[in-house]
Write a structure and sequence with these properties.
Nucleotidyltransferase, domain 5, globular
């Protein structure tokens, strides 16, 4: 059997699957109930053991928020978890009785899930963007997940839109994330992003103006990504994608405004289909590929 663990700031999800990647069960709990890395690992290993029956789990992937050290299997310093330099691969290997354990970026895994089982099925070159509290991404090139020389490819949120723009938490100025993330929008308006988008949907003109500006920034990033990667499709996930009717027209119009990107090579734009399950689905797929 295979297992995928999706470690988030709010929830931890564990999925089990057959060796062909077919999901058989999924469980979840609130992250705050697992206050230490060891508690999280013990809970996940216990759920895996409880649901696996008589079959042995051979491969496990942990999808975790970056930054992560892929070579050492270490969760370095995630922004939404109070953990630092956690050797997750070693901890899970011991707790699972020696299963093969992989650590992967959560946005990469969500992108992999959408590529194999969601909106990106049938493509060979796809860019997944998660747009929520922050902005992340996963790159599929020639049918394979591309992680780059150091495992950090796909940091779409840190694409620079304006070098004179606001200082981002990463240390750069003018990152996409500094303009469009839920955190940035709340800082700009004083309203939680969910409330802002809800107000825009109700016809609040001031809220709609902010949302349209954010979608235009995202569309500008799509132009740069198209020119750099030439994908067939962009798949947008994360909490902001729930407001698809608000953001999609502006993103498409901005992408179409580029005179350099001719219609024949203009990527399609799709909303993610797997929702909150994308990370665990992708983690299971990575465990299958690397079992």
């Amino acid at each position: 059997m295979l297992a995928g663990i999706d470690l988030g700031g709010t929830q931890v999800r564990v999925a089990l699957a057959r060796s062909d990647g077919r999901l058989v069960t999924s469980v979840k709990t609130r992250t705050h109930l697992l206050p230490t890395p060891q508690a999280m690992v013990d809970w996940a290993a216990g759920e895996i053991d409880r649901h696996r029956g008589r079959e042995k789990v051979r491969s496990i992937t942990i999808a975790a928020p970056g930054p992560i050290d892929l070579k050492r299997g270490v969760l370095v310093n995630p922004p939404n978890l109070p953990w630092k330099n956690v050797p997750l691969v070693a901890l899970m290997s011991r707790a699972s009785g020696g299963a093969k354990v992989h650590l992967a970026n959560d946005a990469d895994m969500a992108g992999l899930g959408e590529f194999h089982h969601g909106a990106g099925r049938g493509t060979r070159n796809m860019v997944y963007i998660t747009w929520s509290t922050g902005v992340g991404g996963g790159l599929i090139i020639d049918g394979r997940l591309h992680r780059g020389a150091h495992g950090t490819a796909g940091e779409i949120g840190h694409t620079i839109i304006d070098p004179n723009g606001p200082l981002d938490r990463c240390g750069q100025r003018g990152c996409l994330e500094a303009f469009v993330s839920g955190t940035a929008l709340q800082r700009e308006t004083g309203r939680p992003a969910a409330d802002l988008f809800a107000a825009a949907a109700r016809g609040d003109r001031a809220a709609a103006t902010v949302v349209e500006k954010a979608a235009r920034y995202m569309g500008t990033a799509l132009i740069s990504l198209t020119n750099a990667l030439d994908p067939e499709m962009f798949v947008i996930g994360g909490g902001v994608s729930r407001s698809w009717a608000l953001i999609q027209p502006t993103m498409i119009a901005t992408l179409r405004s580029s005179p350099f990107i001719k219609p024949a090579r203009r990527p399609r734009l799709r909303r993610a289909r797997l929702g909150d399950r994308a990370g665990q689905v992708g983690a299971v797929e990575w465990a299958r590929i690397n079992q």
